[in-house]
């Protein structure tokens, strides 16, 4: 087993799960699904949610994506689970990742899965997500390059979705770098 597998087994609440990544063509319903998810999060968290943003490929018009709505929420301290986690669990979310400064939960809005990433307000990870999203929205060439890379990785089985994300990492880092975003901490 690799070092990365060991890291994932420590962070993933339910352990690694094999997956075949399938991409869907862009769907104009994705922004409305995010709006519905954000409204539910605002109702569940109130002022504890300092910021709620649509991230990931479904946040980029014209980009093929896994049909999963990715959301980032800024909290005071995601490690202080007692201040928010029970409300998210009551709203149907399931804790999937527990690592210092980050929690990832899985929920749904309608038939679409939602990945909810919780970071501290001001986290460089939030900035990185937004710089990447905005760069893809504004630059057709970057969006096309990223989509081509994703299509090259799709259709095969991965030991876990995080390994697929790792495989996209070099292209993501290049795009964030060209946009002037912060390096990975």
Can you walk me through this structure?
This is GrpB family protein. InterPro entries: GrpB/CoaE (IPR007344), NT_sf (IPR043519). There is one protein chain. The protein is α+β, with helices and mostly antiparallel strands. It has one domain (about 5-180): Beta Polymerase, domain 2. About 40% of the residues lie in helices and about 20% in strands. It contains six helices and seven strands. The protein has helices at about 5-10, 30-45, 85-90, 125-140, 140-155, 160-180; strands spanning about 20, 50-55, 70-75, 95-100, 100-110, 110-120, 155-160. The strands form two sheets. Strands 2-3-6-5-4 form a five-stranded mixed beta sheet. The chain has a two-stranded antiparallel ribbon with strand order 1-7. α4 packs across α5 (about 140-155) and α5 (about 140-155) runs antiparallel to α6. The radius of gyration is 16 Å and the shape is globular.
Question: What are the salient characteristics of this protein?
Answer:
alpha+beta; 185 residues; 42% helix; two-stranded antiparallel sheet; 7 strands; NT_sf; Beta Polymerase, domain 2; GrpB/CoaE; 6 helices; 21% strand
Structure at a glance:
This protein has 185 residues and is an alpha+beta fold. It has a single domain (3-178), classed as Beta Polymerase, domain 2 (2-Layer Sandwich), CATH 3.30.460.
Which residues sit in consecutive blocks of at least 5 with pLDDT less than 50? none
Q: What is the number of domains?
A: 1
| CATH C-level | Alpha Beta
Helix/strand-derived category reads: alpha+beta
Helix run count: 6
Order of strands across the biggest sheet? 2-3-6-5-4
**Share in helix:** 40-55%
**CATH-derived architecture:** 2-Layer Sandwich
Counting DSSP E segments of at least 2 residues, the number of strands comes to: 7
């Amino acid at each position: 087993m690799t070092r990365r597998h060991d890291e994932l087994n420590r962070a993933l609440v339910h352990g690694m799960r094999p997956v075949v990544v399938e991409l869907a063509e862009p769907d104009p319903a994705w922004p409305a699904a995010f709006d519905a998810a954000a409204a539910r999060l605002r109702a569940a968290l109130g002022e504890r949610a300092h910021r709620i943003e649509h991230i990931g490929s479904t946040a980029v018009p014209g980009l093929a994506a896994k049909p999963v709505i990715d959301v980032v929420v800024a909290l005071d301290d995601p490690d202080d689970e007692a201040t928010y986690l029970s409300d998210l669990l009551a709203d149907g979310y399931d804790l999937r990742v527990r690592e210092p400064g980050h929690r990832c939960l899985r929920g749904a809005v309608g038939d679409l899965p939602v990945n909810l990433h919780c970071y501290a307000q001001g986290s460089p990870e939030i900035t990185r997500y937004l710089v990447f999203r905005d760069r893809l929205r504004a630059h057709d060439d970057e969006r096309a390059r990223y989509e081509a890379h994703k299509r090259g990785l799709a259709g095969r089985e991965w030991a876990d979705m995080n390994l697929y994300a790792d495989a996209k990492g070099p292209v993501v880092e290049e795009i964030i770098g060209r946009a002037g975003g912060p390096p990975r901490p």
